[in-house]
Design brief:
12 helices, three-stranded mixed beta sheet, 7 strands
C-alpha cells in the first residue's frame, strides 16, 4: 500500500487532461459495446439472450435468502432492489474502516461477514459474482459516477501509474494497447479503450461471468507478467483509475464480450 501511495503523485495530471477534454466537448471515448458486432450487441441488449442474466437471477435469489448466524438476508437491511440503483456505478469507494478503497465485490463480501455473520465468500466465486451481477444490474443505463472523495485521489493516481507501467517478459503496459493502439487489431479482435462499463461481464471466451479483476489478470498473463492476487490493492487502484476515465459513460452490466 505504501508503495502505491508513493507512486501516486504522477497520475493526477492525466486525469486532469481527460476532464479538460470532456469539458471541451471532445469526448472520443468508446465502450467495448460500441466495438462489438451487431450480433453480440443484440445478445447483450436482450435479457432473454444475455447469458449474464442467469447470474443476475441467481443473485436475486441469494439477495433474499437468510444467511449466517444473524439469519439475515441482504434484503432485510436494504430497502428493496431499487435501493441498489446507481450503487455499482459509484464503486470502488473509500472504506473508512480499512482506510482504503474497496470494490463492489469486496463490499458485498464484507456485508456477508459483518451483517449476516456468514462464512466469507471467495473472490470470483459463483455466489459473489451472482450477487455482484444482481447489484450491478440495478445501475444499468445510469452514468458512471465515481465518488468525489479527496481520499481516493492518491489511489486513482496509483492506478494510473500501474496502467502506464511496463511489465512482464513482453515489457508492455496497459496504456500501450488500450491508449496508444485502441481501435487497432490484435489476434483478429478490436483493441478496446478498456472502459469498465459492463462488469461483472459475460465473456464467450470464459463461458461464464467474471469480474474486472479477472479481466485484468488475463491481460497481465498476456503480457507474461505475474498477476496480482485477487482482492489486491493494485486491482482496486486500477479499477479506480479506469472508472475515473469512464466518468459519465453509460453503465451496462451485465455486459457481453467475445
Amino acid at each position: 500500500m505504501k508503495r502505491l501511495l508513493a507512486i501516486a503523485a504522477s497520475g493526477a495530471a492525466a486525469v486532469f487532461v481527460v476532464s479538460w477534454a470532456l469539458a471541451q466537448g471532445a469526448d472520443t471515448r468508446r465502450s467495448g459495446y460500441q466495438e462489438m458486432g451487431a450480433a453480440l450487441r443484440a445478445m447483450q441488449d436482450d435479457d432473454t439472450a444475455n447469458p449474464g442474466m442467469l447470474w443476475v437471477i441467481e443473485g436475486r435469489a441469494l439477495w433474499s435468502k437468510p444467511e449466517g448466524a444473524a439469519g439475515k438476508a441482504c434484503a432485510d437491511c436494504h430497502a428493496g432492489e431499487s435501493a441498489m440503483e446507481g450503487v455499482a456505478a459509484r464503486y470502488p469507494a473509500f472504506d473508512a474502516a480499512s482506510g482504503r478503497p474497496i470494490d463492489l465485490g469486496q463490499r458485498i463480501a464484507r456485508c456477508r461477514v459483518e451483517r449476516q455473520q456468514a462464512e466469507p465468500v471467495a473472490a470470483e466465486s459463483r455466489a459473489l459474482l451472482a450477487l455482484s451481477a444482481f447489484v450491478a444490474r440495478q445501475s444499468r443505463g445510469q452514468p458512471i459516477a465515481p465518488p468525489q472523495d479527496e481520499r481516493l485521489r492518491p489511489f486513482i493516481a496509483a492506478g494510473e501509474t500501474l496502467w502506464r507501467q511496463r511489465q512482464g517478459q513482453l515489457n508492455l503496459s496497459c496504456a500501450q494497447c488500450h491508449d496508444d493502439n485502441a481501435g487497432g487489431r490484435l489476434a483478429g479482435a478490436t483493441i478496446p479503450q478498456a472502459h469498465p462499463t459492463g462488469y461483472p461481464i459475460y465473456r464467450l471466451e470464459w463461458q461464464a461471468v467474471g469480474s474486472l479483476q479477472r479481466r485484468l489478470r488475463n491481460c497481465l498473463v498476456g503480457m507474461r507478467a505475474e498477476p496480482y492476487a485477487y482482492d489486491s490493492a493494485e486491482y482496486v487502484a486500477l479499477e479506480l483509475y479506469l472508472m475515473s476515465r469512464a466518468k459519465g459513460m453509460t453503465f451496462e452490466a451485465p455486459g457481453v464480450r467475445p
